[in-house]
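User: Can you recover a sequence for this backbone? Please restate the input before giving your answer.

Assistant: Of course. Working from this structure:
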């Protein structure tokens, strides 16, 4: 998100589902956007997009740890590439369950892929990896959770209210009129980006001026301007849709008894959890609790000041550590 550019549609394909049933009730025609890397490999891996992620901006490891796999990057519902408020009239609020159900149809009915070697995701993509593992136990063999968790904490829920309020409170917002929420106007773009940029890394990151030494911005103002303009190509309703889905993330919702610990205990897949020690949204403490309840869980803690952004590909050093951890984890599963 630090160096915004024009939208990149290279290699993106679409799969249409004529009648898709949403958890919220209605059946609607939808589309699922995706891109394949290394398609000749017989072993497939799903990489779902995350918050602020588009298909071609998502860290996919296709040239690193996953170079020997057919990597399919799939756009989550609500991100503007797959069906979203901005391109699908009357779409209900999507949930992670909807994303996984749509992906499953893409893989089984369109790509003819009988199983996934792994689901690898960052942030909201990491939460989808947990949902994948619980919802499709015979289909997903491994899950790699990067800077994410099986449920959104109360603290993260409150943090996410900040950017949501920045969008809703900005000039031009009209409740119920989604067509009026295009984020092209300066006030909404700056309000959302200004809130997000402070929480993406950590206090130490700003203290050490990595915005200058690593990213090349001369001043903190230049950095903030870049963050604010990162969302030029986004639609406000899509951003709000993703924030709401993130806030509702909780695999306990997949059980009638809503027992979070039992949901984790019922996951059969091997799970690698990679967490940043300075992540504001997903803390190492929460990940350590999850590991205790997973049958086959492993934990890697990144000693980094890049905060949540450590898992996004923004930090070369952290990306190298993550890439090696994924490669080692998948090697042990063979």
């Amino acid at each position: 998100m630090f160096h915004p550019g024009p939208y990149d549609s290279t290699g993106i394909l679409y799969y249409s589902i004529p009648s898709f049933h949403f958890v919220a009730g209605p059946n609607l025609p939808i589309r699922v956007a995706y891109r394949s890397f290394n398609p000749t490999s017989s072993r497939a891996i799903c990489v779902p997009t995350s918050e602020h992620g588009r298909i071609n901006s998502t860290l996919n490891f296709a040239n690193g740890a996953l170079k020997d796999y057919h990597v399919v990057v799939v756009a989550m519902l609500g991100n503007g590439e797959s069906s979203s408020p901005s391109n699908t009239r009357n779409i209900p609020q999507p949930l992670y369950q909807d994303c996984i159900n749509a992906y499953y149809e893409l893989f089984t009915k369109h790509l003819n892929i009988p199983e996934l070697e792994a689901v690898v995701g960052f942030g909201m993509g990491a939460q989808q990896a947990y949902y994948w593992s619980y919802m499709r136990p015979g289909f997903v063999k491994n899950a790699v959770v990067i800077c994410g968790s099986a449920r959104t904490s109360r603290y993260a829920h409150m943090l996410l209210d900040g950017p949501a309020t920045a969008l809703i409170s900005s000039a031009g917002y009209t409740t119920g009129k989604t067509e009026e929420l295009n984020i092209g106007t300066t006030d909404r773009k700056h309000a959302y980006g200004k809130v997000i940029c402070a929480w993406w890394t950590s206090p130490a990151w700003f203290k050490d001026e990595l915005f200058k030494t690593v990213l090349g911005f001369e001043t903190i103002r230049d950095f903030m301007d870049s963050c604010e303009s990162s969302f030029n190509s986004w639609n406000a309703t899509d951003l709000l849709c993703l924030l709401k889905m993130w806030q509702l993330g909780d695999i306990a919702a997949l059980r009638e008894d809503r027992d979070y610990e039992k949901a984790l205990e019922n996951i059969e897949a091997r799970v690698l959890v990679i967490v940043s020690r300075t992540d504001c949204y997903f803390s190492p403490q929460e990940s350590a609790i999850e590991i205790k309840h997973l049958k086959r869980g492993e934990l890697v803690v990144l000693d980094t000041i890049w905060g949540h952004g450590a898992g996004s590909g923004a930090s070369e050093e952290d990306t190298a550590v993550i890439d090696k951890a994924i490669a080692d984890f998948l090697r042990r599963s063979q």
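That completes the design. The longest helix spans residues 316-332.
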